[in-house]
Amino acid sequence: MMAGAAEDVRLLFGAGVRAALEAWPALQIAVENGFGGVHSQEKAEWLGGAVEDYFIANADLELEEIEDFLGTVK
């Protein structure tokens, strides 16, 4: 894959991750109600980047590995 195409794929993947998190009702309720403290919105934005980076750094992930990762993110 060419460098430009790889960057396009990463940008699209990142947009998909953000869209999924923005559509996640429990996360949105947590942010709206400040469950993460005064920086709830920043933490939600960080989560999107962390998920994107995790997928990019780890090829061929199994569902259990993703569940474990999401369970340890704080």
Automatic annotation (TrEMBL):
Q: Which Pfam families match?
A: WGG (PF10273)
Q: Which domain of life is it from?
A: Eukaryota
What are its GO biological-process terms?
rRNA processing
Task: Reply yes or no: does the keyword Secreted apply.
Answer: no
**Key words, A-Z:** rRNA processing
Stated family: Belongs to the TSR2 family.
Q: What does this protein do?
A: May be involved in 20S pre-rRNA processing.
Q: What is this protein called?
A: Pre-rRNA-processing protein TSR2 homolog
Organism of origin is Rattus norvegicus
